[in-house]
Specification:
- This protein has a five-stranded antiparallel beta sheet with strand order 8-7-9-15-10.
- The protein is α+β, with helices and mostly antiparallel strands and 375 residues long.
- The chain has one domain: 4-Layer Sandwich (Chorismate synthase, AroC fold).
- Helix 1 crosses helix 5 and helix 3 packs across helix 4.
- The protein has eleven helices and 17 strands.
- Helix content is 34%, strand content 21%.
């Protein structure tokens, strides 16, 4: 069973993750871990904090000679802005944040005790864990990308672009959008929101290719791969909606004949679909097509021109607290999305094929591929 825990506060000494269940024999690419953490830091609309933190990941257990041992892996990311004990108390909760609900739940009269842990700073730990998951998936040819589909009122159209074209264009874009025109318009909207003391949300897409059919299961509710992936994505701060394939609000008026993917068979290709409206998942299982997921992120809750709130001590009307924050974090949320989807797929891969070492896992994987080819 693959699982992880994270710990740490936004302005605490460090962020920590413990990853358990990774098989032995996986070659660890430190450069890939650092690259993904750097990708999370940047993107048009991020705040000043991202220029302060180097986000270098230290591996302190579970790896020897750059190879996993099969024992728990401990990851530490030191916070350059380690100032938690010097920061002021907060009593004015921000609408849209964990502030008030967390203060009521844990009986805190200082909201900083809530926001330090509920902060999206925690996602750096999840990206580090996700890098290990992506390394494992890479051993079996599985690749994952993210790209921005919309910010504010601007939407990008990437129909007809291949997986590699989307990746190449998105990596060169300031907002990780694969469409040049939309990218410029998104940047303009972010600049306008910054000038007006506001924030912006949007949507991004996750695509995973070369995923074998049969990950997940139809037999129990908690083993369905789309449910597992959706839960992982919804656990990211500010994520409010997840949809697979072509299924969005504007598809409700279509008939089944418009949306279900007709099945084909070719000897050299095996079973495949004519289209991929299902987004690579049917009946709670991967079906061998690309997994395509659209994810919606709400605007950042901290505003330069704060909304009305109530002081939790005096109970008087006030303006919400203002903390250092982003204007828009949709591009970075896509990187976190890659990490959590990678972790969900890696867990399903290990559940399906078992094995305490990469060698054993590969043997089981190849046996299944042969079985599917000969079906």
């Amino acid at each position: 069973m693959l699982r992880y825990l994270t710990s740490g506060e936004s302005h605490g000494e460090c962020m920590v993750a413990i990853l358990e269940g990774m098989p032995s024999g996986l070659r660890v690419n430190q450069g890939l871990i650092d690259r993904d953490c750097a990708r999370r830091r940047f993107g048009f609309g991020r705040g000043k904090r991202m220029r302060i933190e180097p986000d270098k990941v230290r591996i302190v257990s579970g790896v020897r000679n750059r190879t996993t041992l099969g024992s728990p892996i401990t990851l530490i990311i030191d916070n350059a802005d380690f100032s938690i004990d010097r920061l002021s108390s907060i009593a004015n909760p921000r609408p849209g944040h964990a502030d008030l609900a967390g203060a009521l739940k844990y009986d805190h009269r200082d909201i900083r005790n809530v926001l330090e842990r509920s902060s999206a700073r925690d996602t750096v730990s999840r990206v580090a864990v996700g890098a290990f998951a992506k390394m494992l998936l890479g051993e079996f040819g599985i690749d994952i990308l993210s790209h921005v589909k919309g910010i504010g009122s601007v939407r990008a159209d990437t129909r007809g672009l291949s997986f590699n074209e989307i990746r190449s264009r998105a990596e060169r874009s300031p907002v990780r959008c694969a469409e040049k025109r939309a990218s410029g318009e998104m940047c303009d909207e972010i600049d306008e929101a910054a000038r007006s003391g506001d924030s912006l949300g949007g949507s991004f897409e996750i695509v995973a290719r070369n995923v074998p059919p049969g990950l997940g299961s139809h037999v129990q509710w908690d083993r369905k791969i789309d449910g597992i992936i959706a839960q992982a994505l919804m656990s990211i701060q500010a994520i409010k909606a997840v949809a697979f394939g072509s299924y969005t609000d504007d598809t409700f008026d279509l008939k089944g004949s418009d949306l279900h993917d007709e099945i084909r068979y070719l000897a050299q290709k095996g079973f495949h679909r004519k289209s991929n409206h299902a987004g690579g998942v049917e009946g709670g299982m991967t079906n061998g097509e690309e997994i395509i997921i659209r994810v919606v992120m709400k605007p950042i809750a901290t505003l330069g021109r704060p909304l009305e709130s109530v002081n939790i001590r005096t109970k008087r009307p006030v303006r919400a607290a203002v903390e250092r924050s982003d204007i828009c974090a949709v591009p970075s949320a896509g990187i976190v999305g890659e990490a959590v989807v990678g972790f969900a797929l890696a867990g399903a891969l290990l559940e399906k094929f078992g094995g305490d070492s990469i060698k054993e896992l590969r043997r089981n994987f190849e046996g299944y591929r042969k079985q599917v080819r000969e079906f």
